[in-house]
Each structure stands twice: as structure tokens, then as C-alpha cells.
Amino acid sequence: MSSVVGSATTARLTSSVVSMPRVSSVHLMVLGTVVLWALNVTVTRYVLTHGFEPLAYATVRYGIAALIFLGMALVTERSLRVLRSDIPLVAAAAIVLWVNQLAFVYALDTATASVVALLLGATPIFAGLLVLALRLDRVGSRFWLGAAVSFLGVALVGIGGRGELHGGATGVLLGIATAATWAGYSVAIAPLMRRYSPTRISALVLGAGWIGISLTGARQTATQDLSLGWNVWALVGFATLGPLVLTNVLWFRALHRIGVARATLAANLNPFLAAFIALLLLSEPVTALQVAGGVLIAAGIVVARRPARKEAARARGAISSPAEARSASGR
Q: What is the pLDDT along the chain (331 residues), one digit of tens a residue?
């Protein structure tokens, strides 16, 4: 019996050595997506602190992106049609995206990029709570423990090194709202992604969301000073074409090739990478307490996602869980 076990163990070790992961195009897709997402927080913070009004920036950025996705959808699919029963879901996703972008730009206009980045790390916990509230899935004690740990981390991130809220209570609350609404957007858009291409859904949802953004920001856009310098406009172009358009293509190709679980595992590094980039490029101060908060947020997600014995058995059998399927919502 022991020789059989030993042979099986040797075989598994040999197999793991032979099949050691190599850096391939799909790994570069995931890495590129995570880096672009992380850079977007710092770039947006820079643009907003160098002359661009928050709503004017969101209007320009999402207007360009919506036109790009509209063109891509019409060229590749020649249709934007969705089932009549899916129209309310498209509208709901657009409304949540509209609120999300309002919270995002004002969070970065008020708080530092590093604080907002760390707070965005709590997005999976908010998504889990929303899934639970909508009765789309059941959760166990691990999730509640992970949620408690993550929200303790959120509190530590919000509290500055001297016991004061870093960037003001408003900025922290807006950062939390950004994470919560992005979770809502991800949950709302997931059923649509199972029936339509990312390009078609992006064209519809971003286009409808842009209408709300442009109406809300009409006054700021009309009075926006456009002489901001080539560097600011170059960063606006980057924030639109990179984190908003290119990542859509890279992320969903990566999901198709390596699966949701492995891709989202890498995406969990995004808050820490974004905070590091903000520290490096903007010289933003990050206190030890905020770093500890970020670690707790990540630890809570790990605990919440750690499968119990039955789920682990299903994973070994290559059976995807409903939660994994719903997480394929991209950015």
C-alpha cells in the first residue's frame, strides 16, 4: 500500500515539474490587464488634480470609449440587438455604472489614489453580499468571517496614521461606494455576458451609462478649460484606450483560456499594485495602518473564497461553482 502511495506521489511530483507554468501570451494578457487597471487609479488622480473637472473627465472618457465599442460591435457583429427581456438588465447595469463613475471620480478628486486603490480591494466582498441579498447563491461561515476581516481592513485604510480619516471622511466613503457599486455592476452584467459578447454589452451599457454621466456633468463639461497641456490629454487618452478599452479585450480572452478562478486570483493583486504605483509616481504617503488594512482586505477575500471540503472536491473534478461563473464580469 505504501509503495502505491509513494509511486502516486512521485508521479504527481514528476508531472508538476514537467508541467511547470511558463510565461505565455495569456499570462501577459492577465498581467497587462492588472497593470493597466492599477495605473488607471494614479492617472485619474493626476488628471483630476491638474485641471480636469471630475464629471467633465468622466464624460469625455466614457464618450470616447462608448464610440469605440459601438464601432467595434457594428463592424464585428453588425448588430446591437438584445432580447426584450434583457433590456431592463442593460438599463440597470448602465444606471449602476453611472453611479459608480460619479463615486470613482469624486473619490479620486477628494482622497489619495493609494487610499482609493486599497478600498477597491473590498469589491469581491461587496459582490458576495449582493449575491447573497439577491439569493443568487448561498454562503457559509467562511464568507462571513472573510467579510468581517475585510471590513476591518476597510476601517484601517480609512483611518489615518494619526487617528484621522485620510483624505477626509467624504473621500473614504466615496471610495467605499465605488467598490460597492462596481460589485453591483459586475453582478448585474454577468447574466448578459453569458448571452452576448463583451463588445456588444460594452457598447450598450457604456453608451447608456454615458448618457447619464453627460447629463449630470453637462455644466462642468461646458465650462471645462481645455488648455490643460499635452501631458494631461495624453493621460486622458491612455486612461480611455488602455484601462477602459484594451483591458476589455485582454481580460475576456484570458478568461476564455485560463478560466475565471485563475484570472481573478491575479486580479486580486490590483489594489496593492495600484497603491504602490501611486506611492511611486505621485509620492503619496501610505501609513503602516493603511498597509495593514490592505492586507486584512486581501486576507478576508482569501478566507471568504477558500472552499470547504465539498467545494474543494468539486474543484478537483473541474466543476465550476456558480460564484466563479458570476465573477466573469471583467472591468
A: 444 434 333 334 334 333 444 556 777 888 888 889 989 999 999 999 999 999 999 999 999 999 999 999 999 998 899 999 999 999 999 999 999 999 999 999 988 888 888 888 788 778 778 877 777 666 677 777 777 777 787 777 766 544 444 456 788 889 889 989 988 888 888 888 888 988 999 999 999 999 999 999 999 999 999 999 999 999 999 999 999 999 887 877 776 676 655 666 666 677 778 888 888 888 877 777 777 877 877 777 777 766 544 444 443 333 333 333 333 333 4
Yes or no: say if 140 and 326 are a contact pair by the CB < 8 Å rule.
no
Q: Give the predicted TM-score (pTM) of the model.
A: 0.78
Q: What values do phi and psi take at 53, rounded to 5?
A: -70, 145
C-alpha 298/C-alpha 176 separation (Å) is 15
- What does each C-alpha distance from 149 to 18, 164, 274 come to in angstroms? 38, 21, 21
Quickly count helices (H) and strands (E) in the chain: 17, 0
**Amino acid (one-letter) located at 188:** A
Query: How far is C-alpha 207 from the geometric centre of its chain's CA atoms?
Result: 19
For residue 83, what is its C-alpha cell?
432580447
List CB contacts of 325: < 8 A, sequence separation 6 or more: 190, 194, 260
C-alpha cell at 190: 454577468
103 within 8 A of 126, measured Cβ to Cβ: no
Among residues 205, 218, 185, the alpha carbon closest in space to that of 55 is found at 218
